[in-house]
């Protein structure tokens, strides 16, 4: 195995299996998934505000099922729907975030999830009305 060499110029490819920190070439900044979606499903103690209190689990399951039905779910270059713990934006919840764009959404029901899937995940057009950062 070739050791990690921090003296190499930034644009020289490193061996795949090396010791040392990850190599972040500006020429290799693509995302493994076309869209990687994280739903916060965090449940707090009774009375505390959290995404789980707003049907987040059912909406994550719905999004996963819908992406499978549409044939866009899968591995590299496809859509991945994941569960997450607290994303530390509880006051805006329920929240989900779509990478690589890092666009945060809130949602109420399946209609909102459908709109995010149809507009953002299928057609690359973020849904402004559901964004938490505008
Ligand atoms: S409980 Fe969902 S962001 Fe904190």
Topology:
Elements: E1 35-40, H1 56-70, E2 79-84, E3 95-99, E4 103-106, H2 110-123
Parallel strand pairs: 1-2
Antiparallel strand pairs: 1-3, 3-4
Helix pairs in contact: 1-2
Bound molecules: FE2/S2 (inorganic) cluster.
FE2/S2 (inorganic) cluster binds at residues 40, 42, 50-51, 86-90, 93, 95.
- SSE string, helices as H and strands as E: EHEEEH
**What ligands can be seen in this structure?**
FE2/S2 (inorganic) cluster
Query: What is the CATH domain class?
Result: Alpha Beta
Sum up the overall morphology in one term: globular
Helix content class: 10-25%
Outline of this structure?
The protein has 134 residues and is of the alpha+beta class. It is 22% helix and 16% strand.
Which keywords apply here?
134 residues, Glutaredoxin, 4-stranded mixed sheet, globular, binds FE2/S2 (inorganic) cluster
């Amino acid at each position: 195995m070739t050791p990690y060499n921090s003296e190499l110029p930034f644009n020289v490819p490193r061996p795949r299996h090396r010791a040392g920190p990850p190599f972040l070439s500006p020429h290799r900044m693509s995302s493994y998934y076309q869209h990687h979606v994280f739903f916060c499903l965090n449940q707090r103690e009774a009375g505390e505000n959290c995404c789980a209190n707003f049907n987040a689990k059912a909406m994550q399951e719905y999004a996963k099922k819908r992406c499978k039905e549409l044939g866009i779910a899968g591995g590299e270059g496809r859509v991945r729907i994941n569960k997450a713990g607290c994303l530390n934006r509880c006051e805006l919840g329920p929240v989900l975030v779509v990478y690589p764009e890092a666009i945060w959404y809130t949602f109420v029901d399946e209609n909102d999830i459908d709109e995010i899937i149809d507009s953002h995940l299928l057609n690359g057009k973020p849904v402004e009305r559901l964004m938490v950062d505008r």
